[in-house]
Every structure is written in C-alpha cells, then in structure tokens.
Amino acid sequence: MNFTCDPILPMFNGSTNLPNKSSDHLSVYSRIYDSFNDAVPYAMSILCVAISCSNALVLSAFVINKQLRTPFSVYLINLLVSDLAQSLLDLPFTTMGGFLPVWPLGRKACNFSLYGKWVYSAVVRNTHSLISFNRVWALFFPIHYKQNHTNATAIWLCVATWVYVHIWLLPGLIPDDLYYRLDDGSCQVNTTANPTWALPTQIVLYNSSVFVVAITYPAIWWKVGVRARMKTEFMHVRRDRSGLSRACWRGGDHSCSKHTVCPRT
User: Fold this and answer.
1) What integer pLDDT is reported at residue 21 of this predicted model?
2) What kind of fold does domain 105-250 have according to CATH?
3) Please, what is the average pLDDT of the chain?
C-alpha cells in the first residue's frame, strides 16, 4: 500500500516547524502491511497442504474402520468431505491470487474457482449448523432421536444441505457469469451489481450458521451439565442404598428389600 498519496501528508510536509513523525509512522505501517501481504500466500500454501492432509487422514479412518460409521458420524464425514474439497478446489486458487495480480486461467477456470469458493464454504458452515441441531435433538428429545435417527436420516439431511446451498447460490453465480462480472483481470463475483441476491445469501447462507452455533451451544452445554449432575446424584443415591442394604443383611434384618430402606444403627 502506498501512503505517499494520502491527503493528510501534504499538510505535515508543508510545515517546516513540525517534525515529520506522522510520515515516519505511516512508512512503518506501510512496510508492515506490505510484509504481511507478501507472507499471506506462503502461509496459505502451508495451510492448504496441512488442511488437505489432516482431512484426508481423518476421512480415511472412517473408510477403514466400519465401527466408526454411526449415524452421527455421517455429519462428520460430510464436514470432512466439504473441508477437503475446499482445501483442494478453492484454497489453491486463493493462494495463486496472492502471488499473481491478474487472473491467468480464463473465464471457465474462474467459474470453477468461484463455484468452489462459494459452495464448499457454505456447505461447511451449514454442516456445523446441522451438527448443532442434531445435538439439540439428541439431548432434548432422546427417545425420539433414538427411534428416528438412522444412517438414512443423516444421509438425507446432508444431501438436503448440499441441495439447499445450490438453491441459494446458483441463481446468483449463473447471472454473474452471464451479465455482471467485470472484465478487469480479477476473478470475483460482482455482488454490487446484484444486491437483491448477494445480501440475503450472505445473511441466510453464511452468517446464520454463526447465529445457530451461538444459540444452540449454550443450550447444549447447559443440558450436558444438567445430565452430568443428575447422573452424579443418581450414583450417590445408589451407593448409599447399596451400603444400607449390605448393613441390614449383615445385621440379620431380612425385612430389608430393594423397595425399602433399613434404618441405620
């Protein structure tokens, strides 16, 4: 970033009485900003490899070990697949954009890149929402959850998430390619030209997942805490009753049963 054209600088440069400290500060900030921008593509390259390897490793565990394939693990597999797809089909293009100032691969490759950038990111976010709703279902309605949550249910919910994402995104991505995209050497969706699609999509498809997690996770933590306290109290009561029964038996009081509590002596 070049700060020499900042309109504030001539006010200080034109004065012979004031030290040129602001210009020095801006030069330092400019160097830091430029160094950060130069380092981002290299960090993205490392991140891309790390995410791809870690997701592939965990995903292979589900493929190899059949015991890990439970109805709930279907959501985790869906999350891993979308994460892996994003790291392989989105992050490399994002990294390339940090090294090159102009998109070099043409229109079709740009469409492919934008599809991966928007779709996989949305699927990842909405899968987190799906997992949150699943935990609420399991904790607050355990009987209904056990009766109705199967592998087929989880698979259909994950498929519905992908369909839901495409229903939101394709009506914006296709017109952008046909009518709105700027031929300025970049590769990005022209959201300014289509705000009636871009703003609702940003709120519903991307921001809503943050809201869902923020609302459901405190409820989940609260319910888990309640269950833990109930389990602890039950174990204490069971231990106390077991001790009383043994004491009554050793004392020869055969009137004590599992439905009655013998008095302590």
Assistant:
1) 52
2) Rhopdopsin 7-helix transmembrane proteins (1.20.1070)
3) 81
